[in-house]
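REVIEWER CHECKLIST
Item 1: Sequence provided? yes
Item 2: Single chain? yes
Item 3: Sequence as submitted:
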Amino acid sequence: MITPPDFDAAPPVPGWLEPEIAVDLDAGDDPREKCGVIGIYTPELDSATYAYFGLFALQHRGQESAGMAVSDGRRVKTIKDMGLVSQVFTRDRLDALKGHLAIGHTRYSTSGVSEVQNAQPIFCQYEEGEIAVAHNGNLVNTKSLRQELIAEGEVFGAQHASSDSELIARIIARNIGQGIEFAVGEVMRRCHGAFSITVLTPKAIIGFRDPYGIRPLTAGTIGERGYMVASETCAFGPVGGKPVRELAPGEMVIIDDSGMRFSQGAPTAKPSMCLFEFIYFARPDSRMYGQLLYQARYRMGQQLARQWPVEADIVVPVPDSGIPAALGYAREAGIEFREGMMKSRYIHRTFIQPSKAIRELGVRMKLTPLEEHLAGQRVVLVDDSIVRGTTTDKIVSMLRDAGAREVHVRITAPPIIKPCFYGINMATEAELISANLSTEALRQRLGCDTLGFLSIDRAVDSVGRPKADFCLACFNNDYPIPIPNEAREDSPQDGVGEFSVTDPGQPTLIE
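Item 4: Structure as written out by the authors:
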């Protein structure tokens, strides 16, 4: 028997926010993935509440929009909107989503503009029924694929979504009459790029990964008769789920009244899990490649201490993503670990327009230095990555203003020299500071005493898998899936920058 989670135990859910301009105060130099997907099958209970709690656990993978599609075995109903999970889904909205099958999605835009029509899941009606599709990743052949579908009779009006996810939904809908396995096989054959996807039909949930396995996806159980699939294993615990295994590249899982079964939709190409999932994106309590990410990041910190030792008094993390690596560095170097900054965990999207003066506060909106911990100290500052360099210099300056005598910056990601085309909204090559400055020039720009990046080999060793199992393109320009000119020319970089602005518009209900 499945015990439903206690809705009242969730974080406070505000009433619906009137459509004003939403400003992301938490957007800084960090790369953004991103998306999170989930699928829930609970035969005895409504699945929407389970999907809701699972999406909370995946909120870090996308804070721009959220959506959910639910089926009662006959019809598919979808609700999606701009905003956080708690803003989009009130109790009344969840009560309106009756059914025992559900998929959900949290999103940052990587393909298609930041509009509610591009929020997911994508709903698609076809001659034999209806489906909903939630996608994590990015296609590199979107333009040519769209042209192919138009030539085959598909009609895309101005009102249709501009994301590559709609193309995936159309391909599935066109081919599902020949069976879901055939339809998924067509997606894998025609779509080039990264995709981990959940699909909802009136009677089933399907999850699948691209043949390279760039983005994660794990299947598991809920109670005795329930099943689920999610981007990360951290989504299982809040709903009482148990991960069974990660899907292999090119594999699909089909969940329906007969249970959960796996099928290979396409041959595995070259396993190419994104290394950035281990460095930054995924939650530290998730497991990928059989590894707990917290431990992988701890080992990265240890490797940093071996590669870039320095005489110092304290090791300070940039919260929260730098904490495991900072602990590893401190342990390996025999230097005291000390929190030097406190992070406000409630600075995300605000519907109150800040003044120019507030905007210019930048990183100080999120981080408060602990001057008593920093004054007179030689500090090793540990962070996960440097993309544009627009945040690290402010943190270094803040530590010096708080009295730090020296600041030595250590980064667990190797220098990022190329953009991502597989679902990370990072930056153009012209904006990537390590692609344009030497390490010494960057050190001077940041204003730190020394600067050290973890090498690619040491980062990979920290995960404990062969180097060949990872996508390392942003670090070494070796793209596992060839990038056509259409993707290089039209590489979407929407929703980036120190502050991103979106209009939440009106809530979208499709049934």
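Item 5: Key structural point noted by reviewer: The CA atoms of residues 11 and 86 lie 8 Å apart.
Item 6: Recommendation: ____
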